Amino acid sequence: MPSGIYRSAKIVWDYHLLHQPLVKSDCLFVLCSNDIRVAEHAAQLFLQGYAPYIVFSGNVGDITQGLFPCSEAEHFANIARGMGVPNDCIYIEPLATNTGDNIIKTRLLLDAKQLNPQRFILVQKTFMERRTLATFEKQWPNKSALVTSPPLMFDEFANDVISYGDLVNVMVGDLQRIRYYPALGFSTEQTMPQSVWQAYQHLVAVGFDDHLSPDLPRD
User: Fold this and answer.
1) Which part of the chain is the DUF218 domain (predicted)?
2) What gap in Å lies between CA 106 and CA 33, rounded to an integer?
3) Element (H, E) at 78
4) CB-CB contact of 52 with 28 (8 Å)
5) pLDDT tens digits along 164-192
6) 136-158 burial string, b = 16+ CB within 10 Å, else e?
7) Phi, psi of 17 (to 5 degrees)
8) Distance between CA atoms of 122 and 152, rounded to whole angstroms?
């Protein structure tokens, strides 16, 4: 990766991370995806006693179509079971198709199970921490939440599932959503340093625009 692109990508990566210290909570809420490291991280947190149960939320998206033999939530739950999480401590929401939908449908699931957790630990991919928490704050404002992700550095993240190019494209798209979603009522406002937006503009200018929403401004 050319040094200028690397610098801009690292600025965006660092902005997405919140580095929140964790405290024991009522529920681990896992927003599922193609990255099974998120499932493993959530299972480790459960086994360390951070919450008494886990909710896995996620259907099948464009990226995970054909990747797993079932929904993202069911696949993640199977990973957690394999790591020692008891089945009766796992709840599965297999229908949600985006971050807001994860929250809305998980609310419905917990209501149906007559569960009323007050404090959540949101478990997400590393570069989606900020948008996940901002979405939760808007969609479930009377609850408390922290967000965490697998402890990976930018240089460690890419693997055989997601390349560095894919990673940068998705980070750029998430930054666009962080900037413009609050006006649409999807998430809370986030302070964004000018240096972060300049890094975004640089990455878009050199072609990292595959994950931009066509319904939102590009700049």
Assistant:
1) 38-143
2) 15
3) helix 72-82
4) no
5) 999 999 999 999 999 999 999 999 999 99
6) bbbbbeebebbbbbbebebeebe
7) -85, 140
8) 16
Q: How far is CA 119 from CA 2, 25, 163, 189, in A?
A: 42, 5, 34, 21
Question: Do the Cβ atoms of 90 and 79 come closer than 8 Å?
Answer: no
Q: Measure the CA–CA gap between 130 and 15, rounded to whole angstroms.
A: 8
pLDDT in tens, 55-97: 999 998 666 556 677 899 999 999 999 999 999 999 999 999 9
Domains of the chain: which residue ranges? 3-14+163-205, 20-148
Task: At 38, give phi and psi (nearest 5°).
Answer: -70, -40
Assigned token pair, 215: 């319904």
User: How crowded is residue 105: how many other Cβ atoms within 10 Å of its Cβ?
Assistant: 20
Q: Tell me if 168 sits within 8 A of 203, measured CB to CB.
A: yes
Q: Which two tokens stand for residue 117?
A: 């957790």
pTM: 0.93
Q: Please name which of 88, 92, 64 lies closest in space to residue 77, comparing C-alpha atoms.
A: 92
**What tokens were used for 13?**
């990566």
CATH code for 20-148?
3.40.50.620
